[in-house]
Amino acid sequence: MNYNFLRQLYQNPAFWFFTIFFFIGLFSCTDYGLGWDDEWSRTATGYANYNYIFNGDDNLLTNNEKYHGPFVELILVFAEKISGLTDTADVYYLRHFLLFALFFCAVIAFYAVVKNLYGTFYGLIGCLMLVLSPRIFSDAFFNSKDLAFLSLFTIGLYCLIKFVKNPTIKWALIYAIITGAIIDTRILGIMLPFLTIGYILLLNFLHKIPRKSLISLLAYILATLIFIILFWPILWENPYQHFVAAFVEMKKFHWDGHVFFNNHPVHTSSLPWYYIPVWVCITTPIMYVILISMGLLIFIRQLIINPFKELLNEFEIFSVFVLLSAPVASVVLLNSVVYDGWRHLFFIYPLLIIMSLYGITTLIKFIEKIKYAKEGFFAFLFFNMIFIGFWMVKNHPFQNVYFNTFSRKYFEVGRKFELDYWGISYRQGLEYLSENIKDTDTIIYTSLNLPGKINHMIINEKNRNRLKYVEPNDSTWVYYLTNYRGAGDPENTVLLHKINVDNIPIMGVYKRK
Q1: Residue 336's pLDDT is what?
Q2: What is the pTM for the complete model shown?
Q3: Minimal CA–CA distance to 145: which of 174, 178, 105, 187?
Q4: Taking the CB of residue 208, how many other CB atoms lie within 10 A of it?
Q5: How far is CA 423 from CA 132, 137, 420, in A?
Q6: What is the pLDDT, as a whole number, of residue 3?
Q7: I need a labelling partner for 196 at 20 to 30 A (CA). Which of 263, 360, 410, 496 fits?
Q8: H or E element: which one contains 48?
Q9: CB neighbours of 201 closer than 8 A, spacing ≥ 6?
Q10: Could you write out the DSSP letters of every residue in 427-457?
């Protein structure tokens, strides 16, 4: 046995970070409830594609979700089938673990990217910033759309850098597999191959890499096309037509609803251009916001002064800047439909952290000669991280309603913006009912919206069997659960239980008078 290897492993801080992080995730994956999309994504996307593949069910071809990238949902359904699990709670625990495992792999890839840029120390700082981001952490367990895309996109960023630096056939195939998975999760991932093609061609034109890299690029393009079709069953029949239709649907996507923004209900077609920037600033830890802003300003300044240096000598940072600015610009300029905060752009968050690290490393070069300045900066940064960590533990598993201290204190954002829009807190509301209502065998309840209906599937079978859901207009309901989304207290009821985060209610359990 190679004891030197084990000794080096145990002395590696990254090993301990990822070990601790993995076990925290492992023991947390059974704590979260179900959001709006959980059951719908599992059935309308996952099972629809699974049945099309294995049972010849053509319902997929007329399914409204047929153009929603199925890669992650198919993997989750495959895992469900292989496991043999039938109890819905166990199925969703498995799903939540696998989604976390994907995020765990993404954090490893993120560490590798940052380590390559700035070294081990900054690699760990970047990972801490990513993991100690409350909304990102919580969504990593149940959000099979936005967070799964973030995870795959981050892994794709790692592969992009490896391929551009080492354009071999081996990396072309690895990167093609990941690219296919990314695009077949969300078609917006098509940015990666376009950026890759542009870079390889530019570097060839400038004689920065050997001509044979063009062969690897061609292999990457062909393999990517194959994997896009392979991972997306709807493309098996007329791939060009369906892919174009999927792309058009993405551009024209319309959600006819209202969101609660700055204390006002606003239709999604009338959101102001600053909707995304505001959500980023109020839901990201304030220290991170400052560092991200600093990094972006420094990079833009350097880009203006010497664009070719940033483009060629620091192509990783330039790639990060392009990949984060393009989708934000498209949302702002094209008035794309977004809702429920900035979750549709969560995938740019690791890129924002890399920009913050760019700013930090530049700042350190200026202050390291000042006595204790460098040490003081990192002490302050780690203090902020510890504070965020305590908040996450205290409010577990409701990190998804986090607002930073500055926005809570000075703008009272918790009362002016959407809170538990996913509705995962309904699980705890139903658990309260099933564990505290003892005077009847059947608990008849209703809820403000869909998550209240589906969250019974993730509580234990004994308690689940006592719950009977009826629609709100059914006069037989006795108990009413609400996440207060666009509504206040229900009429003619008495409050039994309330869940608060930062003294703001996110879940209420009521009984009819």
Answers
A1: 73
A2: 0.95
A3: 187
A4: 14
A5: 22, 16, 5
A6: 62
A7: 360
A8: helix 48-54
A9: 217
A10: HHHHHHHHHH--S-SSEEEEESSHHHHHGGG
